[in-house]
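Researcher: Let's run the pair from yesterday's discussion. Sequence first, then tokens, for each.
Model: Starting with the first of the pair.
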Amino acid sequence: MKASFILMVDDDAAFRHVMSDELHRLGYEVSTAASGEEAVQSLSACEPDVVLLDLRLPGMSGLETLRAIHANLPATEVIMLTGHGSIDTAIEAIRIGAFDYVVKPCPLDELDIRIQRALERRTLRRRTNLLERGLTPPNLESSFIGESQEFRRLLGILHKIAPSDSAVLIVGETGAGKERVAKLIHARSQRSAKPFVVVECAALQESLLQSELFGHERGAFTGADRAKPGLFEVADAGTIFLDEIGEISPATQTILLRVLDTSTFRHLGGTREIHVDVRVLTATNRDIAAMVRQGLFRADLYYRLSTITVEVPPLRARKGDIDLLAQQFAAKLNLQFGSNKHFSGEALEVLRRHSWPGNVRELLHVVEAALVLCDGSTVLPEHLPADLRNAESVARTEPTVAVQQSMSLEAAERAHILAALNACKGHRGNTAKVLGISERNLYRKLCDYDLLS
């Protein structure tokens, strides 16, 4: 891991030399400057992560140097070094942008803590900037295709709830579009200019999930060699989307409930209370109410998360949208592939007869495969998967799949997993038992085949 770079600015040569050696010993890369002018000249070459800046310098003052650093490298954090008689000026430095100040002489361990906190905030800012550049586009609704009554009803509900700050639980089958619904809620909310953070709860081990959500302090556990902000901090003033919320453990449920109730939490291994302003959206394909009755999910957390519950209809409940979706997917893929292909009426009729256990995501994959296999300009029924051309779809009470001679092993496995998911109504634990594999192995296969909702 690359060491953090520190620029130390102080006119006391002996102090610079001693502190530089000590910071090197702690694992930092260190450069020094004897004046504000020298520090500003060196910024473009070294681009430090943190500057330790003496408040009293010959020539350019510490405050002037601070302003120059922020003008050239706004992402660099600055810690002021001050004497006892300059506390008021140090506080003024914080007002104009310094991260913190320390009084000389400062114990090395205390200075190290301040540097780590400065690096933590720098990391948080960088992650937030990356997320903000990837925010949901403002015209997201234009990509929501459908004219069916069920779809229009869903859009009407989203129009009502998006401007509020209420917690929303989004329920629906795998592949129905729960994450897209969450993105639309965020895009139409007053938080749309702030981060939208997605957390795949089922993809992370318990200890890692808590660290990702709430952050950790240096030394909180083996391998925690530096402090790390949590995703709740990254999402501050924006929205956090917790996908597969039914997979989190009782311990994480307890912490999450406290965050929802108080808007505060602590880093793992930390004692400082951190306050955030975050809207929480969650999603699941499991029956959380049944899990509450079975004692697998906290009732108080369920009620807190489900202030508003939105049900995303499965594709088979909105048959009238299949043609529109297929044509929209084909148009986008034509642009991607540089082709000009369209579906015949017979091929669209085959799509309409299918029960779509994998929902909209399955339709997208079918359309993509059909365009790749079609040699001409018109997609015909023979370009569609064999199971779609059968009179009955793979969705049955038992997860069985008729393997065709032309079907690859990968395609057969994917179809079998889809059938099992449908038979178990999206419940991963039951699906894994039916398939005879572990739930984690099932999760990896769902990732491989892009079947996660």
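Model: Moving on to the second of the pair.
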Amino acid sequence: MGLRDGKNPHVNLRRLALYATWISLGWAVVLTGLAAAGNHWVLDRVAGGRYAGGSMPMWLRVIYALMAVLMLAVAQLAHRYAGSDATHRQRNLGRLVMLVFSVSTIVNAMSPSRPERFNAIGAAVTVLGVGLLRRGPRSDRVDMRLRR
């Protein structure tokens, strides 16, 4: 699996980016899904921790449920990127995903809730993962480490 055996090191990076993106989105789906269900364990990790020890209003639960579904859609989009069968429109959609998750990274990092600040890590991983996967495999890229 070294560089001299002729295997493309970018393939492994893409697989790592896909798995890291899935893990971060999976955790986000768990958090948003539990928030939508009104689970008290998660309330200090979402919505700035405003509802910790209480309950979220129904309208906010609906928004969190929609967010969970959208994160599953982003995971599917990342899978399409990894498989290189994404359309041009889907590749452009990746820019929007990266922008939204970049804003999410900043907002989560500035949260007054200490547990919610850790959500910034998952959002940043998603930005990096989608960014790497969105570029697609490049057959015209020459890895200078393989040249003699």
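Researcher: Give me one sentence on the second I can quote.
Model: The CA atoms of residues 8 and 139 lie 10 Å apart.
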